[in-house]
Amino acid sequence: MAIVGDRSRRWQVALAHACLIVAVLVVVFPFLMIVSISLREGNFARGQFIPRSLSLEHWKLALGMSYVDADGQMVFPPFPVLRWIWNSFKVSFGAAALCLLLSITSAYAVARMRFRGRGTFLKALLLLQTYNAVLTLVAIYTLFDGVGELVPWLGLNSHWSLTLVYAGVNVPLQIWLIKGYYDSVPRELEEAAQVDGATRFQAFVQILLPMAAPILVVSFVLTFLNAMIDYPIASVMMHDEDKYTLAIGSQQFLMEQRFWWGDFAASAILAGLPLTLLFLVTQKWLVSGLTAGGVKE
Fold it and tell me: Which residues does 265 contact at the CB level (< 8 Å), separation at least 6?
């Protein structure tokens, strides 16, 4: 029985490894295909997986560099891809920072304080999550169109207003997320700090926030990612090409009767590098933040 059990165990391990390998291939293959398209000559989606000859023409255009083609003609970048990436990063970072600032204090209020309307407030936040932000596009456009007449820099076609919208649509979710983590931190730690002479605000800043660092990183990264990949809201609010985010600008590569697949692929990979770096830097906090607040102590 022991021998049979050992063989069965080995088969289970082998099957598990096989399933993991297949899952990795399913995830990695589309990325490798995009890399292949970005290194081919011409703007074609179809072709050999491993190009016969490598070309950096698409990467040069994505980086804002011109090149000389086979006919001896100078080819200039059709779109300001690096500017679009910078716009996306700037708006996303600002939205994530503002959303985090609003969420940590609001979550503390609903997690640690008792006040009239608290239950209604939490239910309203939960209800807001059932509606996609796309349903509010008309309201967002009308609101900022009116605000722009009074405060031009906070109206349509402004990165400030887009940052404010992204922060606002993500705040309800982040309040719930951070509140769940606050609930898992014992109140006695803050009470002990207050007994030693700390004010409530000092206990919040010096005790609770450092312990909640993992969930704060999770909140920041989620908001940042949601803002980076958003298309509907940005397409309604941004009008000038030099103010586009990458999500809007990428559509310019795939217009009617003009499909620049190679340029699109190179731009997509280039835009993914900051996100990859962000996940690598925050990986430790992401793992602990997504798991630690799941059970209330």
Answer: 34, 35, 37, 38, 58
